[in-house]
Design a protein that fits this description.
Strand content of chain B: under 5%
Structural class of chain B: mainly alpha
Helix content of chain B: 55-70%
Largest sheet of chain A: none
Distance between the termini of chain A: 9 Å
Distance between the termini of chain B: 30 Å
Order of helices and strands of chain B: HHHHHHHHHHHHHHH
Strand content of chain A: under 5%
Oligomer: heterodimer
Number of helices of chain B: 15
Largest interface: A-B, 114 and 122 residues
């Protein structure tokens, strides 16, 4: 992307003072937007460190006066469901990582087909993917529940892995396809002339050039699967030991709706890893994010 | 890895430069049929040639994805349609009685249910309010981001994207706490506001989740909070594709920022705005997780939107999977209509090129 200079005033004929004050107003507005965006998350973190007396104080404090870890202790000791946070983190990570690996692998194959070959149903396939991706999950969950009940996949991590793999696929394929399509054909042809077989060309040329795309699609698939709620809620209804983190946080909230310190602590432990992960990868993501909406 | 080795012969080969998989391998070459000097091909090589000749490569590569999506998304969607014409309930799912085809009975029952209509109305009103609000705020932030210095821009956009990346469950639980009547910061802040701004002591202990209007006010703020960063970042990316000379020309012609936006920016970015509006409509009309948590985990029937209504038919006792499927079908059809618009917009933008 070419870096277009910020279109401010041309500068000529405009007094310095005006420019400075305009800049100050814009920066102030920017800070307000950032505050609006960050406030709920910051308030969650701050509440998680507050003792009950401060949580229900008549004048809420932005920063805990007497920070405490007791809320986190409740979450780690498992005083609600009888199982500590780690159990649910383990479930979530297991399901998420397997689903991401599967959808990346399957998605890569499909993306190569859609990005590097011209064939009859290519456009149709892409359109179907686009539609499928927007089907409401709370509608499909009804028939999936009935099917999974017959197949004994309820209360099972395997069932969730299958669903997450499937629902991460359309976006994965769409994004990877764009990456696959940008690898120049000449590169492959040159390699073919040098005697590289299809397999070598895949490993030595296509894969290294698609791998940045693979990173961003994995991040998206990870965020989707780690955050997913409707399927987890429906399929893991009875067996609390199998709960994923979002279901655990929601259950925790439902079970002690006044213990806000502990609820916010559980929510913090669930949210911060995603946000940290997102922060580390956002440079890559931002470009992939808009690639879908803006013609690249 | 099984799948990839299986489809190995189909990996891309530029047309024209496809050497058949022959290798100068003469060591085991026994010629008992001297008429044809065909090289000995392994089974794999023969399969590879056959696939290439018929152009089967892309289709083979698509097999795993098609199978997974077909079985776990497309087939369930078809099944929702099928179940909506059956009396599928507790007896049927436990196998005590077989399910029967009952025509449009589920649909007629739903259409005569006032709760269905109130939930549909809530979904519609919500989308009609939230989508424009998110678009306007997102666009304003996008325009602001374009005018900020590089550092400030990065800071603001990353902060905004953190809101976007916050999981729906966390956001819902956080907002439930923010508006809690007992210790929530929103009621406290509203109580401190001067009365001419609508503040006052009457806000103390105000419950936001016990009635549809306040509950959906909270959900509106929450979905704007979640949704505006995506709009802002996309609009920013669009703005940066516009040549700056256009704005300068408009300014020379005496256009203020308002006219500049409507006469220059908006017409050029119209396709992006269309896509964003349609995507936001699909997301907001189909909102589930946030509504589920804020309205009390299916506890308040008068606060159902269409998604909650449909879900509660299937997953509160006694279950009515047939009715739920009919409602789900209605929900899906409404969203599909919007989706068709979205696909057409995407095609116009050249997304399939």
């Amino acid at each position: 992307m070419t870096s277009v200079p910020v279109s401010g005033h041309p500068g000529r004929g405009i007094r310095r003072f005006n420019r400075a004050s305009r800049k100050a107003v814009l920066n102030l507005l920017g800070l307000l937007v950032a505050l609006f965006a960050l406030f709920p998350v910051l308030w969650m973190i701050s509440t998680a460190f507050k003792p009950p007396s401060e949580i229900f104080s008549l004048t809420p404090q932005p920063i805990p006066l007497h920070p405490t870890l007791s809320n986190f202790q409740q979450v780690f000791s498992g005083s609600v469901i009888g199982m500590p946070y780690w159990n649910f983190l383990k479930n979530s990570l297991f399901i998420t990582l397997v689903a991401v690996a599967l959808s990346s692998l399957i998605g890569l194959l499909a993306a190569i087909a859609l990005g590097r070959f011209k064939f009859r149903f290519r456009t149709t396939y892409l359109i179907v993917l686009l539609i499928v991706q927007l089907l409401p999950q709370q509608a499909l969950v009804v028939s999936l529940f009935i099917d999974f009940r017959k197949l004994n996949l309820l209360d099972s991590l395997v069932g969730l892995i299958l669903v997450y793999t499937a629902f991460a696929l359309p976006v994965t394929i769409w994004m990877l396809r764009n990456f696959a399509a940008t690898v120049p054909k000449d590169l492959e042809e040159a390699a073919a002339i040098d005697g590289a077989g299809a397999w070598t060309r895949f490993w030595r040329i296509l894969l290294p050039l698609i791998s940045p795309g693979l990173v961003s699609t994995s991040v998206f698939a990870f965020i989707f699967a780690y955050n997913e709620f409707v399927f987890a809620l429906t399929f893991l209804g009875t067996d609390t030991a199998k709960f994923t983190l979002p279901l655990y946080v929601e259950y925790f909230y439902g079970q002690n709706s006044t213990n806000w310190g502990a609820i916010m602590a559980s929510s913090t432990l669930f949210t911060i890893p995603v946000l940290a992960f997102f922060l580390f990868t956002q440079r890559r993501l931002a470009s992939g994010l808009v690639a879908g909406a803006v013609k690249g | 890895m099984v799948t990839s080795s299986h489809s190995r012969p189909g990996t891309p080969s530029p047309a024209g430069s496809t050497p058949p998989g022959r290798k100068p391998d003469g060591s085991r070459h026994t010629t008992d049929r001297p008429v044809r000097p065909a090289p000995v091909l392994s089974f794999r090589q023969r399969v590879g040639i056959w696939i290439r000749k018929r152009g089967l490569g892309p289709y083979l590569l698509l097999v795993p994805a098609t199978a997974v999506i077909g079985v776990l998304i497309v087939w369930p969607a078809v099944q929702v349609g099928l179940f909506s014409f059956q009396n599928y309930g507790l007896m049927q799912i436990s196998g005590v009685e077989p399910s029967q085809w009952i025509g449009f009975a589920n649909y007629s029952q739903i259409l005569h249910d006032p709760e269905f209509w109130s939930s549909l109305k809530i979904s519609l009103y919500f989308a009609v309010i939230v989508v424009p609000l998110t678009l306007i705020i997102g666009t304003l932030v996008g325009l602001l981001l374009e005018r900020l210095g590089p550092r400030m821009r990065t800071f603001v956009s990353v902060s905004a994207l953190l809101a976007w990346a916050t999981p729906a469950v966390s956001a819902s639980v956080i907002f439930a706490w923010l508006v809690d009547p007992d210790g929530g910061v929103v009621d406290w802040a509203l109580g401190k506001l001067p009365s001419w701004l609508g503040g006052g002591a009457s806000w103390a202990g105000f419950s936001w989740t016990n009635a549809p209007l306040p509950a959906y006010t909270v959900l509106t703020v929450m979905l704007v909070w979640t949704g505006f960063p995506f709009i802002a970042i996309t609009v920013l990316a669009g703005l940066r594709t516009l040549p700056p000379e256009l704005h300068e020309a408009a300014r020379v012609d005496g256009a203020g920022p308002w006219r500049d936006f409507w006469k220059v920016t908006f017409p050029l970015l119209r396709p992006i705005f269309l896509v964003l509006a349609l995507l936001s409509t699909i997301w907001d009309f189909g909102m589930f997780t946030q509504a589920y948590i804020i309205t009390g985990q299916l506890g308040n029937r008068d606060e159902y939107n269409l998604g909650l209504y449909e879900y509660s038919q299937a997953f509160t006792q006694p279950p009515h999977y047939g009715l739920a499927s009919a409602a789900a079908f209605v929900l899906t059809i409404i969203l599909l209509i919007v989706t068709v618009g979205y696909v057409r917009a995407a095609i116009k933008q050249g997304a399939f090129a």
